[in-house]
From TrEMBL, chain A:
Organism: Electrophorus electricus
Record flagged with keyword Nucleus: yes
This protein's GO CC annotations: chromosome, centromeric region; nucleus
Segments crossing the lipid bilayer: none
Location(s), subcellular: Chromosome, Centromere; Nucleus
The family this protein is said to belong to: Belongs to the CENP-L/IML3 family.
PANTHER family reported in the protein's UniProt record: CENTROMERE PROTEIN L
Gene name as annotated: CENPL
Name of the protein in question: Centromere protein L
Main location: nucleus
Keywords, comma-separated and alphabetical: Centromere, Chromosome, Nucleus
From TrEMBL, chain B:
GO cellular component: chromosome, centromeric region; nucleus
Location in or out of the cell: Chromosome, Centromere; Nucleus
Main location: nucleus
Record key words, sorted: Centromere, Chromosome, Nucleus
Protein name: Centromere protein M
Amino acid sequence: GHGSARQVALSPRSRSYGRSCVEPPSLFWQTPGRLTALGQRTPTARGAAKAYNITVRMYTVALLVQNEWKLSYVTPLYRFQYTKLKLYSRHLAAFILAEKQQGVAVEVGMEAGFRVTFSAVFGLAEKEEDAETVFIQIYSKPMFAADTPKMVWRGWLTCVNGDPEYLRSLPPDFVSLPLFCSNGSEYLTARVKSWFGRTFDCSFGSLCLSSATLNWLAALWTGCHPTCDIGYLKLYWSMPTQPTLDVEYTVNPHDAWELWNSICAQDGAEDMVSVEEVQRFMAGLETHLFRHFKIYLSAGSLVKVSTALGSAHQDGKIKIGSSDYITTLLTLLTECALLKTPV
Amino acid sequence: MALLTPYSKIPELNTATILLIENEERFQTKLADAIVQQEKDVNVNVRLARKLPLPLENGDSRPRVDLVVFVVSLRSERSLQAVESSLNYLASDYYLGKVCFVVTDARCGTLAQERMLRVRRLAASHHCPVLCAEHQTEEGIAMAAMRLLTILKVSAGLSPMATTALYLSSLTRCAAAPELDDD
């Protein structure tokens, strides 16, 4: 573990000019402005994408794949117990029904009630400190017994490769599942969030993916190409012109991989990918487009990245295309969620 | 190399010149208008440029520049890259209190913190202040203009309190916290 105390030693940056009472600006009169749990630390290197050994039931994995998920970050849950999942299911179903009957509902539906299932998905958590993923499904019970229940909403809370120092620093009653993914109507998502907030004293916030995160995804997914055909690498850019110019840049996967390989080969470290390599990769793609179309992509912003392994949109929407490299994607997203979670 | 030097020309009486450098040329003009409108006592010349080095043609007729302001938009990578390359064309004398960074869109939620950190590190290594400006509202532009005018008057030697640009810069320069570098 981390034994050494970090010393905030300030070496005087410049000798004072003329007066000895003028000191270099110190931290003591400045707030460091740390708004998030992990401060300003962003990783400069991360492990290369690893294939995922499927130890999870195929049915559950199939539920994660092929849906579009809307992302949020969650603060740690207080007294969330994996032994009480059935109880939580009943409570949530009753809560949604009660809210609906109170007239809070905007939706017009013919449901007689809701059936909720909470289940723990084992196998996604990588480290010891990670909590197990929780999967929630909401089925609507139809008015007539003859109809089959329809799944109207699904969501999951997960923590994959979370920062171990932070997870260990949490008080014992708290469970941290910082990434929340939801698929379904906004109304039900709001109800679920409200129930979680009341029961576990947590709060949710929307998670947007920055261009840095999307760059990482593009590079990591391209790196997977030799073992798993990514099909294509599509980058969607939005240029700040009047009217806005949208650029859809499709790269042949083999060409993308050759570019990526030529960048990685220079440095040699097999397993770790550094942020400079990612930047060089993106710069290479941008220069190529500039050579042909004279458009500076760096003047705009990267909005979406998509391969056969999945797609990620700046607004915080993702799609998981295949279960192969799912842990890489989830590690990145967990990290984004932890970085955005307020202290 | 065509370096811009601060002391190679003779200053004019009661005059201050500010050079606004912005790659996108969006905020420059509004800021320039606001600066000129706000200042009544001193003659303020506002010069606009996209990048350094400045073209050689009009070099002789340009006045002495008292404050160089780099405007960085955090929305685009290119903005920061253009500023980084422009920094090479300023004489080192400028960095003793005559350079300032203005950053727009710092509050945009979808942006990574990394670009802001890079600007702060850049400013800290050059001993310059960083101002965050709101470029979409009238009040924001007026506020940015007012802050720049305050710094400009000191850099031009027009401050009534006999403050030098170097002294002011030692108080206002951006201090990148050590923990930003450690991790």
